[in-house]
Amino acid sequence: MISITSAQLELWIASFVYPLTRILAMAATAPFLSNVGMPRRVRLILGISLTIVIAPILPPMPAVTPNSGLGLWILAQQILIGIGMGFSMRIIFSAIDMGSAIMAFQMGLGFANFYDPQNTSQTSVLSNLLTIIATLLFLSMNGHLMYFAVLAQSFVAIPVSADAPFTASSWALLARMGGRIFSVGLLLALPVIVVMMMTNIALGILNRVAPQLHLMAIGFPITLSLGFISVSMMSHYLAVPLEQLFNDGLNAMLYFALPP
Q1: Which of 91, 94, 128, 160 is 20 to 30 A from 113, alpha carbon to alpha carbon?
Q2: Is the dihedral of CA 94, 98, 99, 103 positive or negative?
């Protein structure tokens, strides 16, 4: 006769609940997984399925019941770790969104905004287009599978324990990643900025040479057309820098809570 004690049952529950908490917290903040188009029930089923698959290969969990005071502290840590992992990757997509917003402003499309239900804010059409392209590129690189691999590795790099894995350098890394939103966004928009600057200089010279021309009538179509041409040409070379950005985001997901 097989007998199961309450201590064994609580240990089995803890070995399932702790990884599930981290996985669901990351799924609630990471790009693509946290999309409003994905129902919460699907995210929950995905988190439970992933936990069932990787739980047998994870390091031993602390023998602490989740309903105890120490267990609640461990659960809070797992939530923070999952949110930090998802936020690390969210920064990369925010940088792409900022770069495309700069492009739209330079091209004169700053007024072409619509409500984005995912970000609950006004988003430019070009920003939405480049974000969709970046998401499709991320999926074509098996980014969703990289999510699962990083999650499995995170339990080895950042084990579940009662000791707080966070240091001052952990949040400093996230702050530095946040600063990359501006630098990466500017670098992505730099080709369009250069083209628009040259176009505006040419239009300014044309206005001095032929002041009878109505530049307000011909300037906007010219800048808009050259902007779309430059974006189209730039899109052929986006794969390499975006792949590097995605790799940086995945590395930050894994190591943000580790000391330098």
Answers
A1: 91
A2: positive
187-239 pLDDT, tens digit each = 888 888 888 888 888 888 887 777 777 777 777 788 888 888 888 888 888 88
Compute the residue count for the chain: 260
Distances 217 to 67, 112, 210, 213, 222 between C-alpha atoms, Å:
69, 18, 14, 9, 10
Tokens standing for residue 7: 């201590």
Degrees to nearest 5, angle at CA 134 with 180 and 258: 45
> Which helix H or strand E contains 189, and what residues bound it?
helix 168-209
Domain ranges of the chain: 6-255
What are 129's two structure tokens?
């287009």
Instruction: Find out whether 47 and 28 touch, Cβ atoms under 8 Å.
Output: no
Full-model pTM: 0.80
